[in-house]
Amino acid sequence: MTSLKRKDFRLQMLLGLGQTAQVYLAEAP
């Protein structure tokens, strides 16, 4: 595997958090 750069890692983390937030809000009453 190619080592992710810090910038790419941060971007992936932000995208992951965004998706998690969307799912949480979507399932919230």
From TrEMBL:
It comes from the Bacteria. Keywords: Kinase, Serine/threonine-protein kinase, Transferase. GO terms for molecular function: protein serine/threonine kinase activity. This is Serine/threonine protein kinase.
